[in-house]
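Hey, I was hoping to borrow your eyes for a little while. No rush at all, and the record is pasted right below:
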Amino acid sequence: MLKLKVEELVEINDFYNGASRVTITYATANSVLLELYDGSDIEEFILSKRDLIMVLRNFYVADICDIVHSGVYGFIDVKEDILNEHYPVQISVEDGHKYYCNLEELNYIWEIINYQKEQLI
């Protein structure tokens, strides 16, 4: 199974948000073919079911923005549960909302938060 980087999933999520038509084909027990039509071209992506769920939930665009904003201008509380294979990290933001992700996504979020804080100085 092809493992996509978080940056790639952010781009796919953004493209998904702008697509005029979406087709999801379950290829195997754990992979899907995601076809996104933008009005003139069709882009195809092979995703894990977990990555598809995160794209459909708009995690990589909207949720990460919310988490980063809270991390830069307020606070976030991070808890890890290594027994949870797909969502071992729980992030709580100031308003009490909870987000769930993996360690790679958490590291990506921390990088953005630290970068944004440096820009404020």
Observations:
- The two ends are 42 Å apart (CA to CA).
- Residues 59-120 form one domain.
- The mean pLDDT is 95.
